[in-house]
Amino acid sequence: MSWVPVAVSLGFAGLTVLACCSFKVFLGVRRFGRELERTKRRLGPKHAALRDELHDLPEPRAARSPGDGVPSV
Question: Where is the composition biased (Basic and acidic residues) (predicted)?
């Protein structure tokens, strides 16, 4: 019967290790989320400027026929 307290103690120790690892993962995910938000705020104006430049580009020209251009060797 002495194996019951040992098994319970090992189970509790295992749950403690899992809880500690889960907490570290939680903190890492939170930190990563903050980093993504900060990057999004920094790139937002540049993204908007690039999008505006794309709207200002002229329309693409019509495709040329294969006979136009440099022949391949």
Answer: 49-62
Q: Is residue 38 part of a domain?
A: yes
Structure-block tokens of residue 50: 């690039």
What's the pLDDT tens digit per position in 43-57? 999 988 888 888 777
Residue range of the domain that includes 50: 25-55
Answer whether residue 35 is part of any domain.
Answer: yes
45 assigned to some structural domain: yes
Between the alpha carbon of residue 55 and those of residues 38, 41, 48, 51, the distances in Å are 27, 22, 11, 7
Q: What is the pTM for the complete model shown?
A: 0.57
